[in-house]
Design brief:
single chain; Arc Repressor Mutant, subunit A; 7 helices
Length: about 160
């Protein structure tokens, strides 16, 4: 066995060439940069056909309560179950259990407060599931805000 070092630029160039190659319509999959690495994923145009063939959904939907709980954990992490329940105003035992089973969240440790509560955070699978490489890519409040008190389009306002 021999040890050969490959320059990082050569690796990046090879990956870019593969990404370009699989972009072609003759391939049903593509290479996507996700979760700090690369994955071969089915192109959206072929996903429905493959799901029918496999008779299985590619991703099961999360319930609204699970999605709300996951959102709180993603934005507030590291966070305890009590913190999540304070924000949501309801018990989150079931949602947290389901998110742990789906491996979208993980236990990050124990808190220093009374009872040493479990601290939760998102997992690598969370990053893959949502196709992001870093938590900084999560949408911010500004991404959802609409301007109030505006009339017409920008074009008509400028005239």
């Amino acid at each position: 066995m021999f040890d050969a070092e490959v320059p990082e630029d050569d690796i990046k160039k090879a990956i870019e060439e593969l990404v370009d190659q699989y972009y072609d319509d003759k391939y049903s999959y593509e290479i996507i940069n996700s979760s700090g690495g690369y994955q071969f994923l089915t192109k959206p145009a072929y996903q429905a056909s493959i799901s029918i063939l496999l008779k299985n959904q590619s991703k099961k939907r999360l319930s609204n309560s699970a999605m709300e709980t996951l959102s709180i954990i993603a934005y507030k992490q590291p966070v305890t179950k009590n913190n999540v329940e304070t924000i949501r105003g309801v018990n989150c035992d079931y949602a947290i259990q389901k998110l742990l089973e789906k491996q979208l969240i993980e236990i990050k440790g124990k808190g220093d407060s009374i009872g040493r509560p479990i601290i939760y955070g998102t997992s690598e699978k969370f990053m893959e599931y949502f196709g992001i490489n870093d938590l900084k890519e999560l949408p911010t409040i500004k991404d959802f805000e609409t301007e109030e008190n505006s009339i017409g389009t920008e074009e008509t306002q400028e005239q």
